[in-house]
Amino acid sequence: MNATDQTLRELGWDDHFAGQLSAAEATQTHAVRVMAVHRGQVEVVGAGVDRLVSPYVQGARPTDDHPTVGDWLLIADDTLLPVRVLARKNLFKRRAPGDGRKEQMIAANVDTVFIVASCNQDFSVARLERYLVLARDVGVEAVVVLTKIDLTETVADFVQAIRAIEPDLAIETVDGRVPAQVARLAAWCGIGRTVAFLGSSGVGKSTLVNSLRGSDSIATQAVRAHDDTGRHTTTVRRMHRLDHGGWLLDLPGMRELQLSEAAEGIAEVFDDFVLAAADCRFSNCAHGNEPGCAVRAAIAAGTLTRERFDRWRLLAAAESANAAPVYKRRR
């Protein structure tokens, strides 16, 4: 393996991307990975390349597809201008805040997502389910990282609440300031592997990244004492290199995650309700007052909970509304 191939492999390059290059592109372009997205520019790294470039592909309109963090981009050897974005393995996206007509790309080509939650008042099962739906919908492995375990004597209660979402879900409990505990996360961060961090502000994502990198280069802010919530500390979407290999994506905290076209993810996270609904007398059962509703029967029997049912219906309704055409959403 030559130096160029070694560099690309360490960045996450594999056959999925190599197989997309034409003969001309293989000799006339450089493959680079997007490390960070700034306003009007993207930071890219490749074999012998480390620079800022325009996010707009040559000849494309500004409204066309543009790169996001984690993307692989081809740039011309002579001009170093973007040629095209390579087809992604996966893409995390959401409805753009303040404009439901647009979608905002979050990150691409992720191998594992760490869903970060903290052992304090900000802990929310509903929010964890939203993040898990997002991960399941794009087919990315999810691991829940429960932080700030030093703030409670009942860590097991938080773990039990997460297990109620999905019994086999991988969970790691850590104090983000203790490197030996955070080191357990390295199992998902081998050479060329990319992990994304998702979680609301103040749960300790930046502290975790600093511990994994053995650095304090990412700013952290204290949590407000009166409500246990934090301020946003990550303002630029960026990939961070681990000393032992792999990459971390520390993303801005997203307290309100608007799902769109996530029906498959919802069905997977709430598969217990989907399976129960299959036994309803009517195929279009709304699980209200219809006779022969298997979902209501399961809730009455205690095998399903009303609280989880309400969250399932709320997520399904939100997904349906967000996936609807613009004119219907306006109405």
UniProtKB/TrEMBL annotation:
<feature type="binding site">
    <location>
        <begin position="147"/>
        <end position="150"/>
    </location>
    <ligand>
        <name>GTP</name>
    </ligand>
</feature>
<feature type="binding site">
    <location>
        <position position="280"/>
    </location>
    <ligand>
        <name>Zn(2+)</name>
    </ligand>
</feature>
<keyword id="KW-0547">Nucleotide-binding</keyword>
<dbReference type="GO" id="GO:0003924">
    <property type="term" value="F:GTPase activity"/>
</dbReference>
<keyword id="KW-0963">Cytoplasm</keyword>
<keyword id="KW-0690">Ribosome biogenesis</keyword>
<feature type="binding site">
    <location>
        <begin position="199"/>
        <end position="207"/>
    </location>
    <ligand>
        <name>GTP</name>
    </ligand>
</feature>
<comment type="subunit">
    <text>Monomer. Associates with 30S ribosomal subunit, binds 16S rRNA.</text>
</comment>
<keyword id="KW-0342">GTP-binding</keyword>
<keyword id="KW-0694">RNA-binding</keyword>
<dbReference type="InterPro" id="IPR004881">
    <property type="entry name" value="Ribosome_biogen_GTPase_RsgA"/>
</dbReference>
<dbReference type="InterPro" id="IPR030378">
    <property type="entry name" value="G_CP_dom"/>
</dbReference>
<dbReference type="GO" id="GO:0005737">
    <property type="term" value="C:cytoplasm"/>
</dbReference>
<dbReference type="Pfam" id="PF03193">
    <property type="entry name" value="RsgA_GTPase"/>
</dbReference>
<comment type="function">
    <text>One of several proteins that assist in the late maturation steps of the functional core of the 30S ribosomal subunit. Helps release RbfA from mature subunits. May play a role in the assembly of ribosomal proteins into the subunit. Circularly permuted GTPase that catalyzes slow GTP hydrolysis, GTPase activity is stimulated by the 30S ribosomal subunit.</text>
</comment>
<feature type="domain" description="EngC GTPase">
    <location>
        <begin position="108"/>
        <end position="255"/>
    </location>
</feature>
<dbReference type="GO" id="GO:0042274">
    <property type="term" value="P:ribosomal small subunit biogenesis"/>
</dbReference>
<dbReference type="GO" id="GO:0005525">
    <property type="term" value="F:GTP binding"/>
</dbReference>
<comment type="similarity">
    <text>Belongs to the TRAFAC class YlqF/YawG GTPase family. RsgA subfamily.</text>
</comment>
<protein>
    <recommendedName>
        <fullName>Small ribosomal subunit biogenesis GTPase RsgA</fullName>
        <ecNumber>3.6.1.-</ecNumber>
    </recommendedName>
</protein>
<feature type="binding site">
    <location>
        <position position="287"/>
    </location>
    <ligand>
        <name>Zn(2+)</name>
    </ligand>
</feature>
<dbReference type="GO" id="GO:0019843">
    <property type="term" value="F:rRNA binding"/>
</dbReference>
<keyword id="KW-0699">rRNA-binding</keyword>
<keyword id="KW-0862">Zinc</keyword>
<dbReference type="InterPro" id="IPR010914">
    <property type="entry name" value="RsgA_GTPase_dom"/>
</dbReference>
<keyword id="KW-0378">Hydrolase</keyword>
<keyword id="KW-0479">Metal-binding</keyword>
<dbReference type="InterPro" id="IPR027417">
    <property type="entry name" value="P-loop_NTPase"/>
</dbReference>
<feature type="binding site">
    <location>
        <position position="285"/>
    </location>
    <ligand>
        <name>Zn(2+)</name>
    </ligand>
</feature>
<feature type="domain" description="CP-type G">
    <location>
        <begin position="102"/>
        <end position="257"/>
    </location>
</feature>
<feature type="binding site">
    <location>
        <position position="293"/>
    </location>
    <ligand>
        <name>Zn(2+)</name>
    </ligand>
</feature>
<dbReference type="GO" id="GO:0046872">
    <property type="term" value="F:metal ion binding"/>
</dbReference>
